[in-house]
Predict the structure.
Amino acid sequence: MVEAATETLQRTPLYELHRSLGAKLVPFAGYEMPVQYPQGILAEHLHTRSKAGLFDVSHMGQIRLRGAGAAGALETLCPGDIQALAPMRQRYTLFTNERGGILDDLMVTNAGDHLFVVVNAACKVADIAHLRRHLDPRVKVEVLAEHALLALQGPQAAIVMARLAPELASMTFMTAAAVSLGGAACLVTRSGYTGEDGFEISVPAARAEGLAKRLLAEPEVAPIGLGARDSLRLEAGLCLYGHDIDETTTVIEADLAWAYHKRRRQEGGFPGAAVLQRQLADGPPRKRVGILPDGRAPAREHTDITDGANRIGEITSGGFGPTVGGPIAMGYVTTAHAAPGTALSLVVRGTPRPARIVKLPFFAPRYYRGK
Amino acid sequence: MADIRYSKDHEWVRREGALAVVGITDYAQNQLGDVVYVELPEIGRKVEQSGEAAVVESVKAASEVYAPVSGEVVAVNELLSGEPGRVNADAMGEGWFFTLKLSDPKQLDALMDEAGYKKFVEGLS
């Protein structure tokens, strides 16, 4: 998370709308972003879990990779099987470094004549440079600076989207569709960062406010800020780059081996492949796990984890889970202590407090995988 | 009409004879957002003016609550352990944090009165 001085902060195409909705705006990854609206983080979180929440995630980087062989080229930088991605299908992957650490996590969609890539806001400048430096020069890297990205998330997101474009109702999780929404040409994916069914909508900047207002006019929809986005993704067990994963955490330690696909394990051919292969075979020295504190006190990021005597790890995301109704956390512990059920101590303000390892997620996702 | 005084750290303190009830202001609860946990001091603990006395946690972050005056903790608001949201609902009433036995009642005189605090808060935005 990069916080810049006020005068250098960028604004998304929805900035004026956020202000008119009474958002509390804070610096986030170089942008002035809504952390919450007047209803507050708790109510926004619960609204998303029961109805549908609209998020402005236009600060994220949107990139198109064009050219024959773009999928094979992208594979030289990530452990995912991108060549197997059928048209209008989406996949989660990671840019790795030579140590098997994570430079960023990203979503890749096979949009037919190009790959559509969404990367984290705080990493986007570095990611674009990384792609331009390392990809086969025949692959063109186009930055979609003039596009906003909206997310509509929640159990009622699908009925809302169907009112704008009926064909979206039958889309399944991790697929994409090019559709016109209120006259704007959009690329819609059925995905998100909340553990809910939902959609992400790439829309031309000039049409973003109109589309957001159209969605907010639906009775199920409320605007949701980054505060609730964080508690929603934590309950869903999803990693936040720069906190739960970074250049020092490997893909295997982060428990993301599911994104390291079979053919790529056999073939390698991306930075850190040897490290990941070794950790798959021998087990990683530490693992990302879910942690449930006993009692009511939240344990925040950087809280030390001990086995009662020795330090065995650290919390990387921690707070209050509104749907869980209590404190929840994620962090890394040495592999010997990583089994669900293991008792441990969290040192909160100098006092050890009991907690235990639990299986992630805290909230079972409700993705739409078809009837 | 009880005399309520305010600190620059957004605590309020209401004197009741030799005792003083302490909480956080409505402005503070509004800035914090939804309170999900409150850690209160032990009974009998002596706190110094401006020293850490309690912790209040919102969904987003943990914040310290400072003692606006020195004294010994003689009571805490047990209601808050089960219902921390009372701090948001009624910061100046049911959402009180703890009661101190004042060690130096004169410290109250240096704190802001309601008009002074109102002006102080207006200067913050």
Summary: Residues 297 and 327 of chain A are 6 Å apart (CA to CA).
